[in-house]
Amino acid sequence: MELNERAELDTSQANDLGRGGGSGGGGIGIPIPGGGGRGGIIGIVVAVLVALLGGGFGLNAMTNGDEGGQAGGGDLDQVCSTANPDRLDDARCRNLLYVNSIQAYWQTAYPELGNGKYEPTDTNFFQAAVNTGCGQADSGVGPFYCPADKQVYIDLSFYDELASRFGAKGEFAQPYVLAHEYGHHIQNLLGTNAKAGQGDQSGPKSASVRLELQADCYAGAWAKHSTESKDKTGREPLFKSITQADISEAVQAAEAIGDDSIQERSGGRVNPDQFTHGTSEQRQRWFQQGYDQGDPKTCDTFGTDQL
Ligand SMILES: [Zn+2]
Which of 161, 130, 154 is nearest to 55 (CA)? Predict the structure, then answer.
C-alpha cells in the first residue's frame, strides 16, 4: 500500500478527543476509576449494548486495553496539513486518510443503493474512555459505531491490541476496521440495523451475525475501489496503490476476530449460540465477496441461508 504524500486531507471528517473526550463535554474529563475495576464493568455493559446495536467490532471478549499514553486532543488541521512533511507517520492522519477514502467511496456507491444521498459522518479518536450518544464507553470495547449519534469511535491503541493479541499486524487491517464501522453507518442510513434490532441478537444465523458479515462485505467493496478515491480537492488520489498483500492483511484481520477464534483464544469452548459477528471463515469470505464483486448490492447477508 502506498499513500499519496500530496493528498489534501479533509480534517472535518475526524475529531481528536484525546483522553476522556466526549461529545457532550467538550473536553470535560470523565471520572475513570483507577485500576479499571469499575471501568471493566462499564466496559462490559457498553460492549453488550454496542453488540446489541450492531456497532462493536467483535472483541467483546477483550479485557480493557492498556491506557498507554499518546499525545492527544491535538489539532488535526495542523498535524495533518500538507505543510507537515511527517504527517503520514502520524496514526491519526493515516486513519483520517482512510476515513476520507471510505466516505469518498460511499458518496458514489450509496446513491446506487436507491436510498438518496450519502450522509457523511465523523470518526472520533479517543483515549481510554469516551462519552457517546450510546453512553460511556472505554477502550476495552474496541472500535464501534454508535447509531444514536451516527459516529464512529476508535482508540487508536486498539491496533496495537489487534497486532499483539490477535496477530493481525498488517497496516491494511486499519482501513479494514474503519471500513467495517462505516459499513454500520451505511446500515443505519438504510434502516437495516433498525430492522435487524428486532431479530435474534446472537446465534450462528442471528440478525447480529448477518449485520456484521454485511459490514465486512461493505468493507471489501470499499477496498476494491479504494485506489479510485480522491482527496478533498478532487484531483489527487488518496492511495497510490493497494497490493494483494494488503488485501491479505485485511482478510487476516477478519480471520483473527471471528467469534470462534475469539472464544478459543479466551480459553472457552466454541459456542455458536453466543456468536454475534460470525466465524473467522465467514468474516474472511464476506470481506472477500465484497472485494471480488466490488458492489455492495451483492452483500445481501439477510437474503441468504448460505452465511
Ligand atoms: Zn461490527
Answer: 154
CB neighbours of residue 64 within 10 Å: 17
- Dist. CA 211 → ligand 1 center (Å): 7
| Phi/psi at 35 (5° precision) | 80, -15
Tell me the residue type at 135. G
| φ, ψ at 302 (rounded to 5°) | -90, -20
For 30, the 3-state DSSP assignment is coil
Residue with cell 479510485: 228
Q: How far is the CA of 180 from the centre of ligand 1 (A)?
A: 6
Whether the pLDDT of residue 15 is over 90: the answer is yes
Residue-wise pLDDT tens digits, 241-274: 999 999 999 999 999 999 999 899 888 899 999 9
Using alpha carbons only, give the angle 61, 16, 250 rounded to the nearest 5 degrees.
50
- Rounded to the nearest angstrom, the distance between the alpha carbon of 190 and the centre of ligand 1 is 16
How far does the centroid of ligand 1 lie from the alpha carbon of residue 126, in Å? 18
Number of H helices, E strands in the chain: 10, 7
- DSSP 8-state assignment for residue 56: B
- Quote the ligand 1 centre to 184 CA distance (angstroms): 7
Provide the b/e sequence for 70-92 (b: ≥16 CB within 10 Å).
eebeeebeebbeeeeeebbebeb
Q: What's the CA-to-centroid distance between 183 and ligand 1, angstroms?
A: 8
pTM: 0.86
Query: Residue 172 Cα, ligand 1 centroid: separation in angstroms?
Result: 17
Which residue reads 471528517 in cell numbers? 13
How do residues 59-70 score in pLDDT, each as one tens digit?
543 333 333 334
Cα(79) to centroid(ligand 1), Å: 29
d(CA 54, ligand 1 centre) in Å: 6
